[in-house]
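On to my pick:
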Amino acid sequence: MHARALACVLVFVLACTPVLGWPAAAHADVRKADTVYGETVDARGLAVAQCPNIDAERAIVVDADGTVYFERNADEAANIASVTKIMTAAVTLDAVDAGLVSLDTKVTVSADAAEVGESSAGLQEGDVMTLETALKALLVPSGNDGAIALAETVGAALQTSGQASGNSAADAFVAQMNATAAKIGCTNTVYENPHGLDFDQYAGNLHSTAADQAKVVAYAMRNQTFRSIVGGGSTTITVTRSGAAADVFLETTDGFFDINDNAIGVKTGYTEKAGACFAGAVNKDGEELYAIVLDSSSESQRFFDADELCEWVFDHKQTYQLAHSDQSAQMNGASVPLVAQVAHADWIDRTIPATFADPAAAVEVFDLNGNVSQSVTFDNVSGDVHAGDKVGTVTFKQRNQVVATQDLVACKDVPAPSVFESIGIAFDRFMRGFSGADTVATSQLLNTTPLIVDKTSAV
C-alpha cells in the first residue's frame, strides 16, 4: 500500500479504535489565518479542500531554497523539546569542518551525561566512543546523554580555540548554538541546553519558532554526515565500556519513515510544555521539503501533520509549458512553435518568425499561487538575421514574481535589403511620412499563457 494511503488508514484507525491503545486522532483543521505562499487563506479565498488539514498549533513547510508554502503561527515563540538536538548536531559538525575535532575524536560519557534522564541512548558513565557514534546516540533515539557528552567534548574544543566561551565546556557549546542560530538568520531562538529539556533545573527562557527551525533544518541538512544519521533509522553502535567493546541498540524515535515513502528524517521532540514536535524532511525526485510542526496533539499525529504538509505541496506543483501557440514554423528542418513575429527594422513590411531558444522549456509552478503572465521585449533587429539569432525576450511571472525567461530566436534567415532595395525602401518611407502610414512592420507576440487550474478546487 502506498504510504499516503496507509497514512489515511492509520488516521482512521486512530480515530475509530481507541480500544487498541492508540491515542485518539485530533481534529485537524484549516484556519482563515493560515498562510499559503505569503497570503492568508482568507485573503486568497481558498476552500478548505485546497488547504493542508493539520492539527499542530505552529507549523511551516519550506523547500531547500527557503520558499515558504504554508505557515501557521510560524513566528510564534514556543518550546521545541528535542528538536533542539538538530542544532546540537550542527554545531558539532561545524566544529568538525573547522578542524577543532574530528568524527574520530573520542567522547567520554560523564556522570552528568549518564544521569540526565528522560530520553536516553542508554549510555553509561565512563563509556567511550567516537564523536560520530555519539552523534548517532544523540539523533537516533534522541539521547539526552549523547547531547551532554557532545556538548562537553566539543565545548572544550571551542573554548581552547577561543571560538566560544563560558563557565564550562557545556556553556561554551550552548553559546555557540546561539551564535550559529543568529548566523543563519534565526530571529526568535534561544538555546539554554543541548537537549531541549525545559522543566525543573532546565526551566528557563529556551524557545524557538517553526520558521527558525526550518532554517536550522536546512542548515543541518547541508552536511552529509547529519543526513546519513537522521535518514538511517534504528541502528546499533559500539562503545568501549569497562575496557571492553559493548553493543548498544538505538531505536529511532522517527515514525515518519512508516508513513511517507520519501522521508529522509529529521528529528522528534516532546515535553509537556512543548507538546509533540517534529522537524521532518522529504526528498521526492530531487525536490526537498522541510516540514516543522510544533505542539501537535500526539506523538503520532505530528508525523501525519508533517506528511500532510509535504504531500499537499507536491499535490499543488505542476509543470507549466512556456510555449503555447496554435501556429508552427520550420527551424533547421524541425517544426517548432511560432511564438512571435518580430519586425525587421530595415524593411517596411517584413517580420522574422521567432520561437523560444528552448521550444520545449517548462517551469514548475505552485498552482495555488495564481496564473502565469508574460511580457515581451522585442530587440531592434537590423542587418542580416540568421536562424537562431536572438530577436527578443519573454518574461514569465506568477504573482509578480519572475518564474522564467526565454530568449526569442529567429526561426529562419532573413537577409537585410540590398543596396538598391534600401534606396527604394528609403523613398517609400519618405512618402509614407506624408500619409502617416507605417514605416516598419509591427512586432507581435503569438504565445499565450493558459490559465492554471488547481487540482483540488472546490466544486
